[in-house]
Amino acid sequence: QVQLVESGGGLVQPGGSLRLSCAASGGTISNYAVGWFRQAPGKQRERVAQITIGSSIDYADSVKGRFILSRDNAKNTVYLQMNSLKPEDTAVYYCAARRFRTPTYDYWGQGTQVNVSS
After folding, report:
1. SS (H, E, C) the chain
2. Does residue 117 register a pLDDT over 90?
């Protein structure tokens, strides 16, 4: 089964940028739909972006126009470029994968913390 490891989180000032990486092992990431999720303290987890096996990408309204998801098949990695960051983007960010025609995300990384603060 696929294992996922996120990296790239950290502290950034409002208006800044970060790029998160989700590296896969034990499976070919292009054979999975991959989503980026986040969870802030006291809030429900939300999906911020996802890419399907067919490479369709969608974004939550809260990040549309600021975040860009991409996939590098050669590196077996999915990225989340986050621009124009706001304090409300502060959260633990997770990547997750699901198999074709599986409605739920079954494989999760450990998460990476993103803090947006001046």
Report:
1. CCEEEEECCEEECCCCCEEEEEEEECCCHHHCEEEEEEECCCCCCEEEEEECCCCCEEECCCCCCCEEEEEEHHHCEEEEEECCCCHHHCEEEEEEEECCCCCCCCEECCCEEEEECC
2. yes
